Amino acid sequence: MSIPHVATDLPHRVREIEHVRIPMNDGVELAARVWLPEGAEDAPVPAILEYIPYRRRDMTRPRDAVMHPYFAGHGYAAVRVDMRGSGDSDGVLADEYIQLELDDGCEILRWLAQQPWCNGKAGMIGISWGGFNGLQIAAMRPPELQAVISVCATDDRYADDVHYMGGCLLGDNLSWASTMFAFNSLPPDPEMVGNQWRALWFERLRANEPWVIEWLRQPHRTEYWKHGSVCEDWNDIQCPVMAVSGWADGYSNAVFRLMESLKVPRQGLIGPWSHMYPHEGVPGPAIGFLQEAVRWWDRWLKDRDNGMDREPVLRAWLQDSVPPSTRYQERPGRWLAEPEWPSRHVTTENLQLDSGGRLLRDGETLDDEPLTIQSPLSVGLFAGKWCSYAATPDLPHDQREEDGGALVFESAPLKTPLELLGPPVLEVELCSNRPVAMLAARLSNVAPDDKATRVTYGVLNLCHRDGHEHPQEMIPGKRYRVRVTLNGCGQHFPVGHRLRLSLSTSYFPLAWAPPEPVRLTIFPAGSRFGIPAHQPHDEPPEPEFGQPEGALPITAAPLETPHNNWFVKRDLANDISTLEVINDPGWTRLTEVDLDVKRRTREWYSYRDDDFASLRGETLCEWGFRRGDWQVETVTRTVMTCDAEHFYIHAQLDAWEGETRVFSRNWDETIPRKLV
């Protein structure tokens, strides 16, 4: 990570406290790291809390070093807390966003308000998990919490998170569960907790369960997912919210919904970035996000009239047309500013599907013959990741690789430029030959040289056509009209380019395929594709952002050559196709804490021929630490397979201290598919 400008002239000098213990009501103590502006004990300041399970002592240390001292240097007490059961905190971590986690968060806020260096006011900031629980804790209305910055998070844990999308099981459900399986197997640092490190470690190892098992048992919108979904009652949140995401992230949709539905002061920001803070953002351009955060805190925690509350509700990056690539360092474009959302500058333009494979404007003569599609399992091998983490190459490849197995509708070359801002919506009339089916819809930008860059996509489990709580089988042969909402986008289409809508009946491994091959019949005359056409304007004018800056970064020096790659492998002799994902930083050195950190992760997703019962996902994580004579490693492996009726999970956990394996456990679980 590099920051173009290191801010060395901050308004306040900063004092750091490496290790603080925060007591909870049940006797558990949580570990925190604190940065204070000098003199805060004499002139108390507001506190900024980041509360996550990703290990402040080591894993997030480089990221924390840039952000939290920067806040402290601007007159805030910055506090980074390890969640219960993670890092150097006591206890075990049982699942995401459970009530105990949120209750702990409220206790932390109360503790902060009681410290001599805090004036009783607090804000919460976080990316991903910390963005989630910032919103969730805000909905509990602790009096100390005055404002939130939620980055790369969601308001809806079922419909728009890493687990399910449109009722379809995401491949990232397995991937993310495996990441937390590995995180939850790691010990605290003996330098922080002393000789009890081993007892705390074994408590975690014995409690560690592969979360994928429970997530597969909850394939519908049950109370399990409603808990923590702030969209269940928008009025629960009564403090100002800044919501931030990027087009390459998995969570940009939530920004639109939060801006539309919250009743409090709010501001949305969507850039070109992946799942990263915007001052580190890739694809770029990165922006001076920490300056924006300080302005937000100044307005809502220090009551400074800096105009933040009078700025546009939504600021979004309109992406220019680019050739398809699995990685971008920069995405050219320009900033848009919308004074409200939904915007009066965005109107729905309906395009008509026709049986000649065309997307037509209203009033054009169309051909109306039914069309059928039964996609091969290969559609999706080049789709990239549901949520890009900039562990490239994880973005979608040229969509011509996918469109041979799809039903394609394409517009004529554009005679005038077109801008889209928001979510396109497909309304399609269809019937299925199977009771359980899915539909994947992709919008691509096709250049004059025929290269196709995916702009956005959506998937729908057709059993969820009337909602996610009580799905129902399709009646084979019966005609239905269904609605597929694609992910929101911000895209400029130049003159001469074409819009391409591609429909497929599978999209593996981004989404797990249905139990058996499906043939859909599409009726073009009853189908419409609504695109959110944005009219250029200059009221308010395009926003401007400063260059990225932050506090002095620390070095995480690689001890091995990092290896990140994606491979698509076709074994033609056995007709087996495999997507292999490698995220292997290897061993790195954190000199500041005299610690070496190991992190190796591999994933494999495969299928054989057209056999929907052959789908397989496998993950392998090898993580560890070493300092002097102390060395620990854990190996976690999860394999997911299926047949038409069930999912099968096999998982393994092995922990090593030096050369000795000190813990080992296996799991074998069978889970009913329940219309997935």
From TrEMBL:
**Molecular function GO labels:** dipeptidyl-peptidase activity
- Which Gene3D superfamilies does the record associate with it? alpha-amino acid ester hydrolase ( Helical cap domain), alpha/beta hydrolase, Galactose-binding domain-like
Q: Which Pfam families match?
A: Peptidase_S15, PepX_C
Instruction: List each copy of the Xaa-Pro dipeptidyl-peptidase C-terminal domain by range.
Output: 294-544
Keyword Hydrolase in the entry? The reply is yes
Q: Does the keyword ATP-binding apply?
A: no
What keyword terms does UniProt attach to this protein? Hydrolase
Q: Which domain of life is it from?
A: Bacteria
Question: Matching PANTHER family, A to Z?
Answer: COCE_NOND FAMILY, PUTATIVE (AFU_ORTHOLOGUE AFUA_7G00600)-RELATED (PTHR43056:SF10), PEPTIDASE S9 PROLYL OLIGOPEPTIDASE (PTHR43056)
Q: What is this protein called?
A: Peptidase S15
What is the species listed in this Swiss-Prot or TrEMBL entry?
Marinobacter vulgaris
